[in-house]
Amino acid sequence: MKKPKISVIVPVYNVEKYLKECLNSILNQTFSNIEIICVNDGSTDSSRKILEEYKRQDCRIKIVDKENGGLSSARNAGLKVAEGEFISFIDSDDWIDTRMLEKLYKSMTEYNTDITICAVHQYDEQKQTIDDSNKYYTLEFFDNSFDNRAFNYKDTKPFIMDVCVMAWNKLYRKSLIDKYKAQFPDGLIFEDGPFFFSIFFKTNRVSIVRDFLYYYRINRKGSIVQKAGKKYLDIIDIAELMLEKINELEDCEEIRDSFCKKKAEDFIFRFENLKLKYKLPFAKKLKEKSSLVNENLYTSRILKGGFLYNYHLFQGLKTGNIFEFYKRKYIIKSMYKLMEILYKEEGVFYFKYKSLIFKIKKHPKIFDIYYYNDKIYISILKKIKLQFNFKFSNLEKFNEND
Q: The whole model's pTM is what?
C-alpha cells in the first residue's frame, strides 16, 4: 500500500455519541490519500467498538490503544506512528467539511507552506445552532493582504494573540513538527498554545484558507473545559510554557506585551468561572509564578489601550487573595456607576479613569474610598456622599481558613 500523504490524528475518549459523525466526515473526504489514526485513550464506553466497526469497513483506519492520559498524550501518541507527509488533528466530538483536507493541501502546495489555517464554525450543542460571531475562529483578524500568499508570525504582530492556536483547523508539514520536536504538554488542558507557538515562530511559510471547513462543538456536556473545575488551573502552566516560547524570540518584547494583555484577561475570565473551592488555589498558584506576574510585565504595558479595568483586577488576583480581587472589582464597578451618575449632573466636572482613585479634570479633588465593617464608603466632592453594601466577609474568611 502506498504511503499516505496526510495523517489524520483523532484522539478518542468516551465520545460514543459523536464519534460516527466525526469518522464519516473524515472518510468521505474528497482527498482520499490519508491514514486515520484513532488513538483510543482508555475509553470506557462503546467508542472502542465503534472504531473496530469502522476499521473493518475501511483499511485507512488505524487504532492505537493506550491508557487514559488526556488529549495531549493521545495526540503525541498519534504523532509517533504517523507516516504522512502532512498532519491534521481532528477532535472526535467535532466534524469537518468533506473538502477540508483537499483545500488545505492545495493551499500548502500552491504557496509551499508549512502550516495552513482554515475558518471554523462554532456549533452550539445546547442551542443546536452555528455561531460565527467570534473573529478568533472566523479569521477576520487577517485582512485581505494575507490572502493568496505565504506569511510568518512577524506579519501578524498587530493581532498575534488573536491568531487561532487550536490544533485542529490546520494542516502541518510533519518535517517541521519533527525538526523542532513539537509536542503537546502531557497532562494539561488548554494544550494547543505551546504546540502551535513552537512551530509558528519557526517557519516563514504560513497560509490561510477563508472557507469554513471545521465544525467545532461547544457547550458539550461532559467537556473538561465546561466543568470549570480544578483542571482550569492548568491555564497558568500553559501560559508559562507559551511565555517561554515568546522569550526565545529576538523581537520578544512587542509580542510579550500583547501576550500579557491577553493572559491577564484570560486569567480573570477563568478565575471568575471557577467553582468557589478552586478560586483560592488558582490565585495562590498564579502568585507563585514569578515569570508570569513579574511587575515589569504588567505596569506601563498593560495600561495601554484602555485595559485599566483588567489591569486592576489582575493586580488584585496576583496577590493570591480572592477577597482582594472581589474588593477591587466591586470598587471599580461602583466607580463606573458613579461616573455615569455624575456625568449627567450639571456643574459636575468630567472624570478620567487613571487609577482606583478618580480625579476631577480641572480641579484635582480626590475621591475618598474606605472599607469598614462590611461596607464600602465613597465620598465625592463635598456635597455628595454615597454608601454601598459590600458583603464579601465570607470570602475574606475563606482566605484566612484555607
A: 0.83
